[in-house]
Specification:
This protein has helices at residues 7-15, 18-33, 79-84; strands at 2-5, 43-44, 52-55, 60-67, 70-78. By secondary structure, the chain is α+β, with helices and mostly antiparallel strands. Helices cover 36% and strands 31% of the residues.
Length: 86
């Protein structure tokens, strides 16, 4: 699948520490190959019909939506902050 990132995701990504950005890059690569890869723990966000979340690590998440054959990355960061405004 193709990957695109909204500006909000790009800004949040730039604010992450380098080690977390490397983890995000790895998870995005897996996401492009298999949205349901076990390390992503992908699941739909309750109350947000078309938005999904994926795990970066224990403390960080990213959200995305799938439109046609493209994954649109929405936001990335601390678990609680990301899920407040996915």
């Amino acid at each position: 699948m193709k990957i695109r990132a909204f500006r909000k995701f790009q800004r949040a990504y730039q604010e992450l520490p380098e080690d977390i950005r490397r983890k995000v890059d790895k998870q995005i690569s897996m996401l492009a190959k298999n949205v349901h890869h076990s390390s992503l723990h992908s699941k739909k966000i309750k109350g947000k019909e078309h938005i999904w979340e994926a795990r970066v690590d224990v403390y960080h998440r990213m959200t995305f939506e799938i439109i046609d054959e493209t994954i649109y990355l929405r936001v990335v960061g601390n678990h609680d902050e990301v899920l407040r405004s996915p």
